[in-house]
Amino acid sequence: MKVLSFLPLLLRGPLLRPARLSSTLIRATALELVILAGHVLIYPSGIAPERRPSTPRPVPGTGTGTGSGTGKDTGSGSDPEHAAHHDEITRAAEATALPTTGDARPPVVLLHGLIDNRSVFVLLRRSLARHGWRHLASLNYSPLTCDIRTASELLDRHVEEICARTGHHEVDIVGHSLGGLIARYYVQRLGGDRRVRTLVTLGTPHGGTSAVPLAGAHPIVRQMRSGSELIEELRRPAPGCRTRFVSFWSELDRVILPVETACVDHPDLDAVNVRVTGIGHLALPVHPAVASAIRQALESDGSDVGTRGAAHVA
Fold first, then answer.
1. 303-312 own/partner pairs: CB under 8 Å, 24+ apart
2. What is the pLDDT of residues 108-154, one digit of tens each?
3. Smallest Cα–Cα separation from 141: which of 92, 186, 96, 171?
4. 270-310 pLDDT per residue, tens
């Protein structure tokens, strides 16, 4: 596991100086409130599911690039019905895939957090599109979802549909908060590492969180707690996992407590943890400097995130 420092704008050292902590926290809190107000305004635009292009006709003489698509028999994805589902999707991909010549970048799937929707990624999506990403997809899952495993299975179907539609055999995923945990479960426990090249998480409680204690009545929040059955399941061995992880965590995050639990800490996973200074939880998916670092992560092996160029967070 590697830990990298994300260059701060206000401070030139790796840690916040105590004398300036209060002013930094006040600025970050003010920014969180502004982002929250703006998000409330655009939230209705993301309630409806994303409109997907219709499946194209078969293209004669073109390959799919999907490969065999056989996953690992881990977690709840090892039952025959699950395997049969993948075989069916793979056959559909072979019949309908688009050629990917000249389009080397895999599709990017954006996955929102708890009590949110795809509108949270409007700025990040625009940034990726401006820099040449052609295939961008957002998945809405119901706020009434009570099980991370169920949401992961939905993500599984969504990724297979994207691969079938675009002709790519891999995708990248960017998940904010709970969305990152759903994606990690898919990768690590449902064999999704055969489909996910890079998983970028933003303020995701990989080790659980002790925040919002009164919300513990909701089953999915209980799954996000430190020591929960699901968190412990993600601590199990994952030998041969092919997905690389880039996890952004903020020292001023008040949703993920303690903040270090937003780091990926697993001996079998190829993970880079990027410390973000000067912003809070809500700013992670919308801040332009974080968007720049996400683009770096998707364009590289993730090892130089936060060190290449002059990336600053206010």
1. 303/2, 303/272, 305/4, 305/246, 305/272, 305/274, 306/4, 306/5, 306/6, 306/7, 306/274, 306/275, 307/4, 310/7, 311/6, 311/7, 312/7, 312/8, 312/9
2. 999 999 989 999 999 999 999 999 999 999 999 887 889 999 999 99
3. 186
4. 999 999 999 999 999 999 999 999 999 999 865 566 544 33
* Peptide bond before residue 258 is cis, with ω within 30 degrees of 0: yes
How many residues does this entry show for the chain?
314
CA distance 190 to 272: 22
| Residue 13 to residue 19: CA distance in whole angstroms | 13
The Cα angle at residue 284 between residues 139 and 23, in degrees rounded to 5: 155
Determine how β-strand 136-139 pairs with β-strand 171-176: unpaired
Q: How many CA atoms lie within 13 A of 273 on its CB side?
A: 20
Structure tokens at 203: 């303020």
Q: How many CB atoms lie within 10 A of CB 308?
A: 13
Among candidates 307, 250, 234, 284, which has minimal Cα distance to 25?
250
Residues facing residue 231 across a β-bridge:
none
Mind giving me the DSSP string for 73-114?
--GGGGSHHHHHHHHHHHHHHHHHPPP-TT--SPPEEEE--T
Distance CA 234, CA 22 (A): 35
**Cα–Cα distance, 206 to 261 (Å, whole number):** 6
Strand order in the sheet with 244-250: 2-5, 270-276, 244-250, 196-202, 171-176, 108-111, 136-139
